[in-house]
Write a structure and sequence with these properties.
Blueprint lengths: L2 H7 L5 H12 L5 H15 L2 H11 L5 H26 L4 H4 L7 H4 L5 H15 L2 H13 L4 H27 L2
């Protein structure tokens, strides 16, 4: 399935999502790797099979195999880290913030692509997963890596729209539409 096919499957009530997907796919504030890595990592984080398949098919036309792997790794590692660090931040007991994580996270140090790009994908996924501690941490790294506020915002716009497409497709499947 392609991005266009996904867009055509979105129902009329999700017209804004359909239009935003098209607009963001061609927006140039992010270079190709940043843009399509964000799309792919966010699709994986959103968990809807149709969205993942459509965006993966499109992303593979724009990303190296290493970048495809890294985008999927960003969603995977943030699936773990966002739960762990969000707990530490939200728990009423500050002792959790002082304990070592004792979780393997090697891919963050060696993602196989430009570190700032990988961190941008982690930031976008963290936004979907609601881990504001991770959003802040990854924002600091990408900003230090030279990315602008506009680029960060563009990645989060992609995250928002891809997540909305996933929610919509899940709802349509559940409703048998």
């Amino acid at each position: 399935m392609s991005l266009e096919a996904l867009r055509s499957q979105l129902p009329a009530y999700a017209k804004d999502i359909k239009l935003n997907l098209g607009n963001l796919a061609s927006e140039e504030i992010l270079d190709t790797q940043k843009r399509w890595g964000t799309f792919l990592s966010c699709a994986v984080a959103g968990r809807n099979p149709a969205v993942i398949q459509a965006i993966a098919a499109e992303a593979e036309n724009h990303l190296s195999p290493e970048a495809v792997t890294a985008a999927k790794a960003a969603a995977a590692i943030m699936g773990m880290n966002n739960v762990f660090y969000r707990f530490g931040h939200e728990a009423g007991n500050d002792v959790y913030k002082t304990l070592p994580a004792k979780l393997r996270m090697q891919v963050i140090g060696n993602p196989g692509v430009d570190k700032a790009d990988f961190e941008l994908w982690c930031l976008a996924v963290s936004s979907i997963n609601g881990c504001f501690m991770c959003v802040d941490a990854h924002d600091a790294v990408v900003r230090k890596g030279g990315m602008t506020s506009e680029q960060v915002q563009a990645s989060v716009r992609i995250a928002a729209v891809v997540q909305a497409a996933s929610v919509t497709m899940d709802a349509e499947a559940a409703l048998g539409s």
